[in-house]
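User: For documentation purposes, I need each entry recorded in a consistent format: the amino acid sequence on its own, followed directly by the corresponding structure tokens. There are two entries in this batch. Please keep commentary to a minimum and don't merge the entries.

Assistant: Recorded as requested. Entry 1:
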Amino acid sequence: MSHPIRIILVDTSHPGNIGAAARAMKNMGLRELVLVRPQAFPSAEATARASGADDLLAQARVVASIAEAVAGCGLVLGTSARPRAANWTVHDPASAAALIVEAAVARPVAVLFGNERNGLSNEDLSVCHALLNVPANPEYESLNLAQAVQIVTWEIRKARRPRVRQLAPESPPATAEQVANLRAHLAVVLAEIGFKDERNVANLVARIERLLARAVPDEKEVQILRGVLTAVQRSIDGRAAAGP
């Protein structure tokens, strides 16, 4: 069982960013939003920008200090767009997300986002264990607050889920024998239509074999391809029977 992952917005000046951050959180399955000294909240603009995530806004906690916001949390990370003088450990969103998901097994985790103009102060960061930085174009590193929340929460969702989503196959993979029969059939048809790779005659069949190996066709796909080849042969036979 995982404990909550708490998104904390500090000194947010634009209520629309609070709503957009709530929307980003709900998109990625996070629900615990804490606001430290927001300039305007509740707000109709925040509700409008939440676009259906107004339930997160309704249950958001408004507190007067970061200490209140992180109360009960184990790991606390602070986002920062600029280098800091202190000897901080700095994570990118992917490595931070892995750390967050692992730490949330034991205790709630908090991720702090500063205000739109100045970010988190050094005093704000004093409660943090490490920093989280979103690498951006060094010529234009300014990220909107809600965009930053979206990136971090997306990485958290990825870290929580299996890397590969397994879907039931439409058809089982073709057997080695079926693929070999397809190669042989293709070689026959190429000979019948007189196709030759004049630049690489010796390796033509080998290249086709490698192509099929990379494709990993299933049984249905092999059947379709052999059906196409059979149709080509019938067309050749029909033209031959018709004569000149």
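Entry 2:
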Amino acid sequence: MSEQALIERPSSGRLAGVQRILRRILREPLGAFGLTLVVLVVLAALFADVLTHYQPTKLSPIERFAPASFQHLLGTDQLGRDLFSRVLHGGRIALAIAIGATGLSLVLGILLGLIAGYGPRWLDNVMLLLFDAVKSFPTVMLALTLVTLTGPSLLAVLVVVVLVNVPGYARIIRTQTLVLKSAEHVMAARSMGAGTARILAVHIMPNVIGPILILASMDIPVVIAIEAGLSFLGLGVRPPLPSWGSILNDGFVNIRDSYWIVVAGGLPIVLTTLGFTFLGETLRDVFDPRLKARA
């Protein structure tokens, strides 16, 4: 067999696996609907500069509170800024924070969960106490504390989301690690002289990472809602940067003058949450049909 065939075979196998998963998602009405919404939201955020020629921070007082029209598809706000442009660019910020914060939370949660589950008993107890202590703080109180120390910023939102999500991921990984560390293949690897790092990376982590990835995909809309909520309260993205939460806040403040600002701020949050939730539920059913049977 030629070297080229050996290279192409794994690639073809992975591509076939992705296509098979995609077909199974599209067979489910909610999965297809969720995937469509997610793709539309992501493409709208990526190509925001192409889809609109208005700058999201450009002021035009003469056009303030303009209703939806062919010129301004979602109307304008109290400062004459184009809402369609602000929604698209706000999607960039929402997705960047959601994906970045979820990815960082996932890495830290896996690392801490493996250490807690595989380490000595006293370390496990200390880390469990730490997880529970951090998890017990209400999100808003935690945000207020960080904002008081650092001021409203994207970094504050990122830190809040990471602190909220890491304990949950770490506890799940810890529980599965406790089960797997006494499994036969792990005991065999240890008896053959494999080090702790190799056992965790090769024999345990590949077996515990699947469910946590599905959980992380379902947490993305939660992170988007947290970012929007903090920005709505003035604790997140600072003006003039566009954020779905700040747009929603502008709408509530000026709801008597223009109802369309509330719609422009709330609709993308609802659609994005529905898209990622439906897609995450379908992925869970695809990768673990036993959960679907129990439901």
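Summary note for entry 2:
The radius of gyration is 23 Å.
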